């Protein structure tokens, strides 16, 4: 796992090589170095391990998703702020099956760090509401569910909200 500064430095070196090849009228080599610089720059903004974890989570394979996230040794040092928020969200979603306290702290860190998309914020708050309900904190779960309704503009999470409200009536 490369640090974010090493990725930027490598991008700068590859861009320099590309410019040098264009000056030397080696257009094909210049294009190749430019594409390599683009790939390295892409991995600065979109971490490959987080993309893998999202893929495995979508396939409902929690073990492989956890392994992909475990390959990120120093998340604060190697991820930018947006990636760090999604790292915490993924960790919270995966850990929620085994350890609610740890999952709650990860999800709160994700919301505090700043998830970009409204539906991702809604998903994190829905998970937090589930954790609060499991710990019998009904008032906090209600507040989180109202936030989920506000953030979920497309209604993708309405079924899950209804299920949590049904469970809330039992408590």
Give the arrangement of secondary structure elements.
Elements: H1 4-23, H2 27-45, H3 48-58, H4 62-70, H5 75-78, H6 81-95, H7 100-113, H8 118-134, H9 138-151, H10 158-170
What does this protein structure show overall?
With 171 residues, the chain is an all-alpha fold. The chain is built from ten helices and no strands. The longest helix is centred in the N-terminal third of the chain and has 20 residues, at 4-23. It is elongated, with a radius of gyration of 21 Å. The protein starts with a helix and ends with a helix. The model has no long low-confidence stretch (mean pLDDT 91).
Keywords summarizing the entry:
single chain, 171 residues, mainly alpha, 10 helices, elongated
User: What is the overall silhouette?
Assistant: elongated
Got a strand count?
Answer: 0
Structural class: mainly alpha
Specify the number of helices.
Answer: 10
What's the average pLDDT?
91
Contiguous runs where pLDDT drops below 50 for at least 5 residues? none
**Rg calc:** 21 Å
Strand content: under 5%
The largest sheet is: none
Distance between the terminal alpha carbons, to the nearest Å?
45 Å
């Amino acid at each position: 796992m490369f640090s974010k500064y090493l990725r930027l430095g490598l991008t700068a070196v590859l861009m320099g090589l590309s410019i040098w090849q264009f000056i030397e009228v080696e257009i094909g080599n210049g294009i190749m170095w430019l594409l390599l610089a683009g790939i390295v720059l892409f991995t600065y903004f979109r971490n490959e391990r987080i993309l893998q974890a999202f893929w495995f989570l979508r396939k409902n394979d929690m073990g492989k998703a956890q392994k992909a996230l475990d390959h990120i040794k120093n998340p604060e040092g190697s991820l930018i702020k947006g990636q760090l928020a999604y790292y915490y969200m993924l960790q919270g979603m995966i850990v929620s099956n085994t350890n609610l306290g740890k999952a709650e702290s990860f999800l709160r860190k994700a919301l505090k760090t700043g998830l970009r998309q409204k539906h991702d914020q809604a998903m994190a708050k829905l998970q937090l509401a589930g954790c609060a309900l499991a710990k019998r904190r009904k008032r906090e779960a209600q507040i989180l569910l109202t936030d989920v309704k506000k953030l979920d503009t497309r209604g993708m999470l309405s079924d899950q909200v209804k299920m949590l409200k049904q469970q809330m009536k039992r408590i």
